[in-house]
Amino acid sequence: MSAQITYRMARPDDSRDIARFMCIAGGGVYEFLFDDLIPFMTAVDVLSQGIGSDDYPISYRNCRVAALDDGGIVAAANVFPADMMKEDHYVLLGSERHEHIRPMLELQDWGSMFLNSLAVSDAHRGSGIGAALLRWADTKAMEAGYDRLSLHVWADNVAAVNFYQ
Asked: What is the reported pLDDT for 24?
């Protein structure tokens, strides 16, 4: 018998799991930006702090998770208005690291709802979980009055490119 998947809005205690999935979705970007930015802290540690707060775009309040019956999280998505990234108060990056992602930020579709991350555990890929989270993100965009959902995906991440197309 296969495990039942439950979709729910994230809670503060999901922060570490969401951070792990955010790093998977980021394809190494978060590790580059945050590993050892604060001594002895990993990207997951840094992201967990922002996700656990109420104020940051990556807050648990903007995340949805897919969980098993036992509570284990197998997927997570984070979506928020792209214009929230214009606010400097949440940026923790040193200028050198920030410069490396400037071209990506310049490609941002301002005025859209931004799907910052969506990742599914390897064991659960191909089961419709990612599609369900993407539908949630699209619905959230429409309900918030946005006419489009935007995202970034690495061109060499063929599986993700195919999924989003």
From this structure: 97
